[in-house]
Design brief:
Elements (H helix, E strand, L loop, with lengths): L8 E3 L3 E5 L6 E9 L5 E7 L5 E4 L2 E4 L3 E9 L13 E8 L7 H7 L6 E10 L30 H45 L14 H23 L1
């Protein structure tokens, strides 16, 4: 049994274009229109899920309505010589009557019920911008660090603003670390000065401490002279 023809109208139809420079997040938009009188479920997939953020990536499209999808390409080092093979696929199916559990419903759908459309990604670099290619470029970015994508035309400016704030926070953190090191050095110097002050005499003008052993010497000399006197006295007798 052949697959059903796509019911949604997708703009653009065949290509998603991303305009550089690519050292910042770049967002492209896709418009889905449901011209039928039935609800349609949609889901968007890509061959490179770690390199894109899609908002929303699935949902329900009411009859005779449309929605805009924001597709954000994460920063990477662009190499014009490298062939791009990224693709997107829009899968759709008519929604059943009654309440809808999207997660469970997508598990139960058979391939014969699905309608799909494929779009390839095209990267465009303005001539006034150039980037250095690298062998380990895209591996440095992961979905965990991806900036949130807003489903509006202000998504690009919001993402760039967030990147600038992160850079400013890093610079402030570096400055605080340097100030912390200077404080530690000053505390160490103060401790050394306090130690020297404690070792010095408290009163520089106090008289020197007399040697307490001097009276003992005089007493010993007196005892010795007394003994000598007694001995000489005996001899005199």
């Amino acid at each position: 049994m052949s697959k059903q023809e796509q019911i949604l109208q997708i703009e653009p139809q065949n290509e998603l274009r991303f305009k550089g420079p690519f050292n910042v997040p770049v967002t492209s938009y896709m418009k889905l229109t449901n011209p039928s009188d039935k609800k349609v479920l949609f889901k968007i997939k890509t061959t490179a899920p770690k390199k894109y953020c899609v908002r929303p990536n699935s949902g329900v499209l009411d009859a005779n309505s449309n929605t805009e999808i924001a597709i954000c390409l994460q920063p990477f080092l662009f190499d014009p010589a490298e062939k791009n093979k990224h693709k997107f696929m829009v899968q759709t199916v008519f929604a059943p009557e009654g309440e809808i559990n999207l997660e469970q419903l997508w598990k139960e759908i058979t391939p014969e019920q699905l309608m799909d459309s494929k779009l390839k990604c095209v990267f465009e670099m303005p001539p006034e911008h150039t980037e250095i290619s690298g062998s380990d470029d895209t591996a440095k970015f992961s979905p965990k660090t991806a900036a949130p994508v807003l489903p509006t035309n202000s998504a690009d400016s919001e993402l760039q603003k967030a990147a600038q704030e992160v850079q400013q926070l890093r610079e402030e953190e570096s400055q605080l670390r340097q100030e912390n090191l200077l404080l530690k050095e000053e505390i160490l110097q103060l401790k050394q000065q306090v130690g020297v002050a404690r070792a010095a005499p408290t009163n520089r003008y106090a008289p020197p401490v007399q040697d307490q052993n001097v009276p003992m010497v005089y007493l010993a000399m007196a005892v010795i002279l007394g003994l000598i006197g007694i001995i000489l006295g005996k001899f005199a007798l």
